[in-house]
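Message: A physicist's question: would you kindly supply an amino acid chain plus C-alpha cells?
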Amino acid sequence: MLIKYRQNLGQNFLKDARALDRIVSVLEIGSKDVVVEIGPGHGELTRRILAQGPKKLVAIEKDGALIDHFLKEFLKNHANLEVVEGDALKELPKVVEGLGGEPYKLIGNIPYYITGHLLRTLGELEHKPSIITLTIQKEVALRLCATPPKMNLLSASVGIWGNGKIIRYISRKSFKPSPKVDSAILKIVPRKELVDPNYYKFIKALFGSPRKTVLNNLKALNLPKEELEKILFSIVLNPKARPQDLTIKEIKRLFILFTHN
C-alpha cells in the first residue's frame, strides 16, 4: 500500500531495526506496564512494544490514513491496544487523565516541530510518566541535556521537572524520507513535583541575553538593583555570573527567592 508522506505533519519514519529496538528497550516494558505512544506512524515501534506484552498501549496518531492502513491491523490482534486519533499536544492530557492516576511510560518518534510544545506539555502534566523516551533532533537533545557552563533556556525548562540523558545518536539516513539533520534517542526520568507556571516566565528573563550577567538579565523582572543583589548574595551567587554557568539547583533557588519577594 503506497502512502504519501505528509510534510506538513513532519513525517520522517525510522527504519533502522537496531535503533527501534534500542528505543523500546529503554522503557523496560513489563506485563503490568501501561505505555503511551506518540506518533506511531507505520507501527514500527508499536509492533515492538506489543511484543513486550504490556498491560495496555495507547497510541496517539494524527494522520487518519496511517491509522487505516497500519494501526487497524494491530487492533485486530491486540485487545490491549487503543488508538486515539488526534493531535498529541491536545490528546495527551486527556489520555493521561483517563488513566486515573495509574502509572505509565511514554515513548515516541515525534515530529521535530512539536518537540518544544510537547516537552512543555509533559512538564505541565500533574501525573507525569515514570519514564520517557523520545527520538528528537540531535542538536535539540544536546541543548536539553546541557550542564554548566552551557546551560540554556531549554535545559532549564526541562531540567526543573526531569533528568534528561542521551542514549545514542541516529543518522538521518536511518529515516524515510531522510530529514536534513541527525537525531538522538533521549531518555527523561521525570520528578513528581509540579512546576509553577511562573517559572517559565522567570527563566525566559534569566536567559534573555546569555552574554549578559544574571543581575542584568533579571532587571527585566522590575526589582531594584539592590534587592536583586541581596537575593543573589543570599545563595552565594556572584552578581556577575552568567546564566549559562548556573546549575538547575541554583536556578530553582533563585526562582523560589524571587517568588517570595
About this structure: The chain has eleven helices and nine strands. The mean pLDDT is 91.
